[in-house]
Every structure is written in structure tokens, then in C-alpha cells.
Amino acid sequence: MKAGRRAAALLGAGLCLALAAGGGRAAERVEPREVLALYHGGAVEDVYFTAIHRAAEMPLNHLGLVLRYHDMRDPLPPVSDLGQVRGVLTWFRSNAIDDPEAYLDWAAAVLDAGKRFVIMGNIGAELDGAGRPVPRDAINRVAERIGFRFEGRWAGITYDWKPAIADPDVMRFERPLPAVVPPFQSVAAVRGDAVSHLVLRRAGDPGTDSHMVVTSPRGGYIAAGFAITPNVDEDRRRWLLNPFAFFRRAFGTDGLPKPDTTTLSGRRIYYSHIDGDGWRNRTEVESYRERRPTLSSEVVLRELLEPYGDLPVTVAPVVGDLDPDWYGTEEGIAIAREIFRLPQVEAATHTYSHPFDWAFFADWTPAKEERFSGLYPMRDAMTKVAKIFSWLGAGEEEAEPAPDYAGGRSLAEAEADDEAESIGVYERPRAYAILPYSLALEIGGSLAFVDGLLPPGKRAGLIQWSGNTLPYPAAIAASRAAGARNLNGGDSRFDSEFPSYATVSPVGRQVGGQRQIYASNSNENTYTELWTARYFGFQHVVETIRNTETPIRVKPFNTYYHFYSGEKQASLNAVRRVLDYARAQALAPVAASRFAAIADGFFTTRLVALDDRVWRVEDRGALQTLRFDRATFEAVDFARSQGVIGQRHLQGSLYVALDEAHPAPVVALRGTVVADIPATAPHPYLIEGRWRVGGLAADGAGMRFAAQGYGCGAMTWWVPGAGRYAIEVVRGGEFLAAAEAGADHILAFELGQIAETPIEVSVRLAAPATE
Questions:
Q1: What angle do CA 656, 658, 661 make, to 5 degrees?
Q2: Which of 74, 84, 68, 63 has the alpha carbon at shortest distance from 106?
Q3: Taking the model in full, what pTM does it have?
Q4: Radius of gyration (Cα) for the chain, nearest Å?
Q5: pLDDT tens profile 345-379
Q6: CB count in 10 Å sphere of residue 324
């Protein structure tokens, strides 16, 4: 065995340790992470449909920024209330606004208060509500503060305009500019610290330069049509400019630590979750059909769960498929109990009646749903579909407040119009309607039912949104009130069909005052044309998994599918290929609810600057990684840090692993002159590992820590001294093993196959190396 590279030990279970909080509080300053995103709520039904959310929010999240959306129909927030706002972002479709002068005064005041202002496309205030033009000088009061000026000339014929400057770091990202650029208004750069990343010039006329993409220490500007490919289907868009590079400059994020949702213990996070759709489907897989009619859920159990005990998975049945008073059977219940007994399986719920269109239920009444009664499935004991709706007329429940999804009208008012009778792509509002709609039943009721199927020590703690995965605010609030996390939506794709970061979703969605957490990848539904063709298609999720890892890691590895994948041999093979691919990667597997908790922590994390390159990390929840970009020659200064368990350089960034046992770690950085080997430190630190590590107590001779995870618990540490180390479980087991650290100071060893509860490990230098 090569010294310093390989050793293995099988270890048992134990208990986490805790470290006391610390860190000085002199000269403290909270790093602003919030971006105020302005949008016209009358033009879109929901934040979900804005260009900012669909394309810009993911790169901004990657840069550590959190978006707070503000509907322009509401009064603008006082500038004095923007203390924790880093800047303002707009990407308006229209150039008209009811009171443009007041808006421009507010924008100027925002800039004067030291906040950044980033304008993508239309400035949004060139016309008033009556269509009258706004004086250009009023607009330029804002533009000039950022660093550019609208000159008033319009280039409508552009065949002879070509780039005089096209910054390769910012432009020509996923697509070059079109041969004939979009029409534009001429723009001049007016401040010396403004940087022009794209300048157009009319052929043979140097005096016509127009600055289409500009950044400055006060924000930035992108002319309409120059950010993303215009006039194409939204799902086929590609970035013309590099949004990571543009936003990094415009919002000045180089010095900002990035709370990271992709990485744990120095490795890429892996999680998997299954929605319950198709639980009761009869499989067509020949090897099962030959013996007896078999449910798809049993095929998933036998083929995708039992053989992959090293990969955690969260299973969320639709309770209506299990409840005997709905559509459940003894066979389905038995399969559920068997699935939930598997140690790597976490329990969740995919709701009770499986709502398809969540907005429909925001102001639900029995009469509103009655017209769909003939579309709901019968139960075996019923002779008429109408009997399913025997509860109609029994008294209407109090309707929950409706979000403004209908352009200023309630959904009930909108449905009075013939054109509003549709509920999107669905023929009925939910899968089942045995009982009146009840949010309490969908959330708390479904969690309680699943809990009744679980072995001791397990509980359901995750809501996996159903249908269009666009829950209304009260639904998300109900999930959190029930003590559950929430997940689903987003549908990230980045592959040959969707070849752009523009179709990679952000961490989540603002819904009123709530946060919905998105799944990190799309499921097999989008690969199979809504489960109608190409049943092998889910195997191509690997393209998205690769593209969101290289050249930059923007998403964890997420395997997300439904129980109907157990229905067909092709779909079964597709999921198996994805799981086999996951097994071949160096990952840190976690349950889906833990990823949702990490994502929640992204939004709550506070970064308090204590000194130059020293931060205290507060309110991070389950998030345990900070990322520092452009940090090849940076390293953790462990002498000034607390609650840091490790560091790893990857893709030019420094990933810092925080100790989950420390409530408020302090991270300090120092310079280092060597980039290709791990930095030195006064005590051991984790470079990377498959399992979660916490409660680290380390000195020059070794360390003690708690660990928990799935699969072979391989981990690699940097240690100050070369030699033979003794590895011992000090709580939860008795096994003792040894591992060797060579001249490279690398100590590698493996823990057991699975630890459902934390084990406590001691690693001590037993025999120092001799020359």
C-alpha cells in the first residue's frame, strides 16, 4: 500500500461533540447579500415567469446573492429601509410606468445611498402611463450615476454596425452576437471608472461608438437584446454575455464569501427523491409480469432501492394511493412499509389528493370544483362518478386568501371570463377528490398518514410539491408550520436539447413572504414528453449533471424520478444507469430533506465582516460550506478561524467546510504561494470526504470528530506530521485500525458502509515517520 494514500477501517456509531462559539465583535459589518429585483406584476402571473427569475437568478445565487422581488404596482420601499440591500436589479419588458419621475428620483436616491443599480434591457421609465415620453435628462440622472448616458439616437437599421470592443471575459459566452445586431439606442460612457464590455461602431465611422454593456463600481447596464438570444422560444435561449462575469462586476462580489448549496465535506452533494405518481401502476417489465401482476412501486423497490443501499433516497407517496378510504390497497401499503424499512430511505409525502394546479386551490370552493366532477376516477365500490362528490353542498370551507395571480383580479373573478376556464395543461385540478380540498389534509394530514407506516426512529419531514409545483404562499407556510421542509419545481436542464445556463433553475422561488426550494434537476417527465414517448430518456440527465459540474459547479447531483419509472423496462434501465453513474463519482450523499435544509440556510445566512478577510457566519442553518472565488492563492488561516473543519481548492475556488457543531464559525483567510498542493496548517483539516463531519477537536498530533453518512465513508485529511495514525471508534464501536501519512501529509482512510446516527472517531499519531 502506498504511504499516505490508502488505508481502510470499518467503524461503528457514536455521538457528536460541540464547540463553544467565539470570535471578536469589534468593527463588525454585515455583508449585504440581498438584491432587490423589480418587476411589473401586471405583466406576469407570478415571479416564476419573470426573466430575472427564469434566467438571471441562478447566476446571482451562485455569486452568493439572494433576490427579494418587489412588484412595481406596490409603493417603492424607502431608501432608508435598504440597509442590507446590495443593489437593485431590473429587467423590464416595457418602457412605460405610471409615475416615471418618482421612480427615477427613487433610483437616483438608491445610487446616492451607495447601493448598486443594474439595468438589463429597457430602463422601464421612458414613457408615462399615458404614453408620453419622459425627458432624457431625467433618465440620464440615473444612468450617469452608474457611468453611462443615453444620447437619444436610435439605430433601427444595424447591418453595418459591428463590435469595436467585445470583452472576451464577458461577451460571446454561449452564442456570439448575431451578424445583424438588434436595434438599439446609442449610449456613451461618461465616467472613467466605467468599463465597456461591448462597444458597437458603424462601419468606417469611429465617432459612432455606442456602449451596449457597461459595468462600474455603482452597477451596470445591458442594452435590450444583448444579454440573451432574442426572439426565440424561452427554453431554447442562450446567453450572449457571461452572466457570472457580468454580475460579478456589476454587484462587486469578488470579496463576498459565497454560501454554497452544492458542496459538503469538500465533495459535490448527492441526493435523490421519488415522487409517488405511478405507485399503483401495473408494471410492463417482462420478468415481473410473467410471474404475477406487479405494481410499479414493487419494481422500484426491488430494482432501484434494495440494490443501492449506499445511495440515500427520499420516497414521497401520494397518500390517496395508499389510504384504503381513497384508492389504497393492502398490497400498496405493504410495499410502502417495506420501502420505509430500508435504512437509506427517508420518508416524505407527495400530498394527499395530488393537486395539479395549485393556484386553483388558493381560493377554493366546492362549487368551483364541481364542474370537474365527471373527470375524477371512480373507486371500485362506486357505481357513479358523482358519488365521489357526495360532499358537495355539505357546506363550503372558509376560502384561503388568494394571491394576485390574475393581473389584479382574484382567481374567482378571472374564472368568470370564458378564457379563464382553463387550468393550464391539466384536465382537472387534482388527481383525486374523495374529500373536499383541505390544505390541512394535504400537508399535515399526509405527513401524519406516512408517519403511521414508518418503523421506530423515522418520521416524514419533507413535502414534495405535486402537479405544476407552484404552491401558493399559504401552502408553503403550512409545510413549515408542520415542521417539514419543502422541495420540487425548477426543472433544471442543461443538455443538447437545452444547451444553456438559462434553463438551470435558481435555489428556490419567492412566493409572497415564503420560500419554495427547487429540486436541483428535472425528472423523467420532461425527458419522456410527459410520459408518452422515449421512455429511456431519463438517462440523459447525466448531461445536465456533468454540465452543472464543469467548468463551474452550480448544482448538486440530484436523481429525481417517479414510481412510474418502474412501469417500463426502458425507464427502469434509464434510472439504473443514472444510479450507477452516481456510484462512480466522488460525492457526499445526503437525504433530500437535508438538501432542502441546506438550501433554506442559503437564504438565511448572515456574513459579518470582523476584519480584513475575516468573517463570522451566522444563521446558516444546515448550510456547511462557504466558497471563495478566484482564490487559487488563498487558504484558511486556522490560527484566526473557529469552527472550520476543512478546505479544498477546486476550479479556481476555495471551498471551506464549516463545523455543523459550531453555531457561528469564524473564517479567516491568508495568502499562500503554492497552488497545487494543500496548504499547511497547525493541525489536521479535512480535504474531502463522503460523510458529514462535525464536532472537530484537533491538535498537532491528531483529531477527534463525529461522522455520519451513506456508503463507504472514504475521507482524506491533511495532517501536520507524517507517520502511522491509529484510528479508533471511541463511541458506538470497538474497531481499531491504522493509516499512513507520507511526506505529502495526506492521510486517507475509510469508515463503514452506513451510519444512520453519528459515530465518534479518534485519529492519533501513533508512530511518527523517521527519515
A1: 170
A2: 74
A3: 0.92
A4: 28
A5: 999 999 999 999 999 999 999 999 999 988 998 87
A6: 10
